[in-house]
Design brief:
InterPro entries: ArsR-like_HTH (IPR011991), TrmB-like (IPR051797), Tscrpt_reg_TrmB_N (IPR002831), WH-like_DNA-bd_sf (IPR036388), WH_DNA-bd_sf (IPR036390). It contains 10 helices and 9 strands. It folds into 2 domains: about 90 residues, Winged helix-like DNA-binding domain superfamily/Winged helix DNA-binding domain (Arc Repressor Mutant, subunit A); about 180 residues, Endonuclease Chain A (Endonuclease, Chain A). By secondary structure, it is of the alpha+beta class. The strands form 2 sheets. Strands 4-9-8-7-5-6 form a 6-stranded mixed β-sheet, with helices on both faces. Strands 1-3-2 form a 3-stranded antiparallel β-sheet. Helix content is about 45%, strand content about 15%.
Length: about 290
């Protein structure tokens, strides 16, 4: 019931109107007095809401004394709401002032639902290219949108980070002071059409945080990181035996030259091994 009321409110109905519509749908038809008594609210508020709903066509008022009201069946209601929403969206899109140029800004997005929602909206707007650096768990949540983008002709470039392949780890940069960073999260980044990007972290408890921007500096950084990751992967795939023969165990420690030391003067532990590859969603996004 609460979910239904929430979605009715999302469609533009007030809380009172939503409750009245659900009550009428449950009873089939009822007088204003009966609805007010069932909901435990004043009759004046109920009659005012019923008048609005009747004028808008969502509720019908029958003849008789007292008048009895009924709501449209779900199919009629959905068709009417959909038509009006689409008409309003089309008008807004064509008539909304576009204004002048806006300087790129950085926006914080909090919460798993908000992060995924922002990604879904932007993926659906992609026209040319999507660059994805993500763990398989997060890729699977967006599989439908990514497949739809590919069907539209959008170019997809993938780097999956699953921590389960024998490639050289990236250096760990321990904090210089203060509390240790929150652990248990999975980093991800998306660059869409080389002008919009999101960089964030999703945690095991279902929470998520991300930064969204169209600033060219961060877009360029993420694209460069992706390129370096893919080039390294390709080199290791093509020259793995030669690299091992030439460098031996030292190859796996090359990154350690660039790892900062913690306050005790000790090197941080090496992170989990990383795997990067250019894959299609149907290969590994299950």
């Amino acid at each position: 019931m609460e979910q239904l009321l929430l979605h009715l409110r999302n469609l533009g109905f007030t809380e009172m109107e939503s409750k009245i519509m659900v009550e009428l749908a449950t009873k089939g038809q009822a007088s204003g007095y009966e609805v007010a008594k069932q909901l435990g609210v004043s009759r004046s508020n109920v009659y005012a809401a019923l008048q609005r709903l009747t004028q808008q066509g969502y509720v019908r008022c029958g003849e008789g004394e007292p008048a009895r009201y009924s709501v449209l069946n779900p199919e009629e209601l959905a068709t009417m709401i959909s038509g009006r929403v689409q008409a309003s969206l089309a008008y807004m899109e064509s008539e909304m002032p576009r204004g002048g140029p806006v300087s790129p800004s950085f926006y914080n997005v909090e919460g798993d639902r908000n992060v995924l929602g922002a990604l879904v909206r932007q993926l659906n707007l992609a026209r040319q290219e999507i660059v994805v650096d993500v763990w398989r768990e997060e890729a699977s949540l967006l599989r439908n949108e990514l497949e739809q983008a590919e069907m539209r002709g959008v170019r997809l470039l993938w780097a999956f980070d699953g921590g389960n392949a024998a490639t050289a780890p990236y250096p760990a940069w321990p904090p210089l002071g203060g509390e240790l960073p929150r652990s248990g999260g999975r980093k991800f980044s998306f660059v869409i059409d080389r002008c919009w990007c999101m960089l964030g972290m999703r945690y095991e408890d279902g929470t998520a945080q991300a930064v969204v921007t169209e600033h060219p500096v961060l877009v360029e950084l993420l694209l460069n990181h992706f390129t370096q990751e893919m080039v390294l992967f390709e080199l290791e795939e093509d020259m793995g035996t030669e690299l091992t023969k030439r460098y031996g165990e030292r190859y796996s420690r090359i990154y350690s030259k660039y790892v900062l030391h913690d306050q005790n003067g000790e090197e941080s532990e090496e992170p989990d091994e990383q795997a990067a590859g250019q894959l299609r969603p149907e290969d590994d996004a299950d």
